[in-house]
Amino acid sequence: MPNYLAFVAPTPVCSSRRSARKAIVRAKLTQSSMPDVSVEHPTKTRDSAFAQFCISTFRSIMHPKIGWKSPRSGYDGLVEECRMLLARKGPEEQQKVVRHTLDTLFQAPHGPRLFRQLFSDSPRLNAFITPMFFKWLVGECYTNRPEEGGFGVYIEKCRFLEESGCKGLCVNMCQQPTQRYFSDVLGLPVRMTPNYEDMSCQMTYGVPPLPIEEDPAVSGDCLTNCKMSSSIRLRGDPTCYVTKSPK
């Protein structure tokens, strides 16, 4: 005998419609809260095969830590992923991502140990090879003898600073973690002195970095028309970690 009392009540139509509306609202909110990290003027630099390989390697190491991958290819995609990291994380987390990237590239702990044995006592050699291996990242550069001593590399117009358009990215994803890694891990002190007015930068091997509280790079106002101001506002703490001012 059939059991006419055993049936499943249909889902109320009004409940389904409410759930659908809530899903649409959530999707719209997610889209509106997504930081704008797009590159306004895509780079016109024609990267060599070696440069493209380096860019691809950097991105493959970094974007899993960032939790997002830019749809753009090449250097523009790298810049957008760095911007996304700044929009989502504070300076400590940003520098940890750079540390992880450098550890991977140097095959830590074996690579840094070998570097210390072969290159840490030769600031001149490091200054000589830097333009050959990092031109793709920073743009045109050449060796020089800085006033503060040591052996240096002068970056005429830093590609990363120009493309990212943000002091925070310069300090937390380049200057500070690079200085710390060379000094603490590779055993070769290096000082990086960016010039925000003309986008140049002086790297000086064999000279210790300035204490962060004395470093003029980590102070002052934002760059004119900082490209990350609106994105930083979406973070829980809408404060620029370099200028210490609210965006």
From TrEMBL:
A GO term for molecular function: iron ion binding
Keywords tagged on the record: Isomerase
Pfam families, A to Z: D27-like_C
Protein name stated in the entry: Beta-carotene isomerase D27, chloroplastic
Domain Beta-carotene isomerase D27-like C-terminal: 136-214
Organism: Gracilariopsis chorda
Source superkingdom: Eukaryota
Coiled coil segments of this chain: none
